[in-house]
Amino acid sequence: MNALSIPQPARLRLNWASLGPLAALVLACAFFSTQSDRFLHLQNFALILQQVMVVGTMAIGQTLIILTAGIDLSCGAIMALSNVVIAKLAVTLGWNPYLAVLAGVALAAGMGLANGLLVTKARLPSFIVTLGTLNIAFAATQIYSGAQTITGLPGPITALGNPLMVAGAPVLWGSLIMLALYLLAWLALRETAPGRHVYAVGNSPEAARLSGISVHRVLLGVYTTAGALYGIAALLSLARTGVGDPQAGQVDNLAAITAVVLGGTSLFGGRGPILGTLVGALIVGVFRNGLTLMGVESVYQMLITGILVLLAVATDQIVHRNG
């Protein structure tokens, strides 16, 4: 078996399984449009994009890890740590804003690399590794920030929170950055050898190794890239809220996993469209937005989101058993 004979799931033609998340999104939009006159307004869709841009960016990294049959529970905590590091360096220590952003993203990438090293070198399960990293990053965030919100961010850090008017709707630059990152990830997974290697490792690490792929190198690259994406998500969070928030990201790890699962990526690895994750993030955003417009309390929104996740996982199990 050689590298050229590895299946390339990203190139497979669309089927009903891959169209499922998109159909769910369309049906959700159709339903909520009948419940609220405001739902179909372009301003409301711009708001949905704004609400999902942080979790949506984190979900790209989460998708890469789940494609390799891993999982990352630490993504929200790493994002929060990067968030306060960027803010504190720029505001308290007076660093150049661009250097502060670079340092925060580098820290997040370094923590992703640490996760990858523990998974590959120590051969620890990703669930356990990232559970530990979650607690470490959370504690570090509280200690470094003194559990205090950081205000007075300089303009370059909040610039991506500025709107661009599109057909009369204010679309944040950060939302466009998120969409550009999805396009870049889609091209990388579809058109490059490293991208195809991610699918190969998720399908069968041993078969990938026998075909000449360095499984450890792929995993290290995936976890490091995911960490860098969490750092970019931290910048988007700063741009959207205008403050460094040590409480940010506490449930974003679950939200990111939800987006990946709803988007059709298999928890068993090796199968799933990256653009499906974007659709999954939008499904969560549409449900929360639509239910809010209907006056449904947030606790019931969480209940409905949980039911959606269980349905998506059950479908994945059925597909896996029959595949």
Order of helices and strands: HHHHHHEEHHHHHHH
CATH-derived topology: ABC transporter involved in vitamin B12 uptake, BtuC
Strand fraction band?
under 5%
Structural category is mainly alpha
CATH class equals Mainly Alpha
Mean pLDDT: 90
CATH hierarchy: architecture: Orthogonal Bundle
**Number of DSSP-assigned strands:** 2
Biggest sheet layout: 2 strands, antiparallel
Q: In total, how many domains does the architecture comprise?
A: 1
**Helix content range:** over 70%
Report the C-alpha radius of gyration, rounded: 19 Å
Supply the key terms:
323 residues, mainly alpha, ABC transporter involved in vitamin B12 uptake, BtuC, two-stranded antiparallel ribbon, globular, disordered N terminus
Task: Give a quick summary of the entry.
The protein is an all-alpha fold and 323 residues long.
Can you tell me about this structure?
- This protein is mostly helical and 323 residues long.
- The chain has one domain (16-316): ABC transporter involved in vitamin B12 uptake, BtuC, CATH 1.10.3470.
- It is 71% helix and 2% strand.
- A two-stranded antiparallel sheet has the order 1-2.
- Strand 1 (163-166) and strand 2 form a beta hairpin.
- Mean pLDDT is 90; it is low at 1-14.
Q: What is this structure's SSE topology?
A:
Elements (H helix, E strand, L loop, with lengths): L15 H20 L6 H26 L7 H17 L5 H24 L5 H20 L9 H4 L4 E4 L2 E4 H19 L1 H11 L1 H6 L4 H27 L10 H11 L11 H20 L4 H25 L1
Helix pairs in contact: 1-12, 2-7, 2-10, 2-11, 2-12, 3-4, 3-5, 3-10, 4-5, 4-10, 7-8, 8-10, 11-12, 12-13
